[in-house]
Amino acid sequence: MEYAVVGGPGAEATLRLDYRVFAYAGKFVVGAPGKAVLRTPDGSPAVPEWEPEEPLPPTVEASEFDDDVVAAISFSPDRTDPACCRLRYVTVHVARRGEGLGPRLVDRTVSRLAADGYDRVRIAVNNPFAYAALYKCGFAYTGEQTGIAELELERPASEPAAEAGPGGERYRAGLRAFREGDRDLDPREEGFIADRLGEGGESG
Predict the structure, then answer these.
(1) In the predicted model, what is the mean pLDDT of the chain?
(2) What is the pLDDT of residues 114-130, one digit of tens each?
(3) What is the pTM of this model?
(4) What are the residues facing 151 on neighbouring strands?
(5) What is the DSSP letter of 172?
(6) Partner residues linked to 76 by β-bridges
(7) What stretches of the chain show up as alpha helix (H) in DSSP?
């Protein structure tokens, strides 16, 4: 599997991802953000001999999709702070989830952004699973939330955040924040949070 930057911010690079396979597939058709991928080195399908259960409509051909992509990420400079780059969307092929590919792609992209001269990298998350995975990538909760109640995480581009790593008070504060407001957590998310806060529930 290889890492590749499809295009930097403003390069108008696009990806055609199968919407049945990748969350946020439509976001990668937008050209303005930069994009990077993990993909098969020889252009072969990411998951050979696997097909989604949902059929494509007659107007869409499977050959239109970039089927060698295993995971994809989009990024662009923060609108108010050009020294900070935001990771906009991270998505992994549905049949390859649970293999650590999302964090691997984030790590490689952060390294690339550091080489490109960014001081810091930010990302907003809307679920505790992504939150925990990004802590493992060196991000830490800032205490801030977006207007749509996503939690803001940040790290220096060149090294992990000083507060990174599960178990600290800032990490726990972010987990508690998922319980606030009008969030509709499902039982699996509730169990995950309870387990990480030492309250029992789902392990792992």
Answers:
(1) 92
(2) 999 999 999 999 999 99
(3) 0.90
(4) 125, 145
(5) H
(6) 86
(7) 101-115, 128-135, 169-177, 187-196
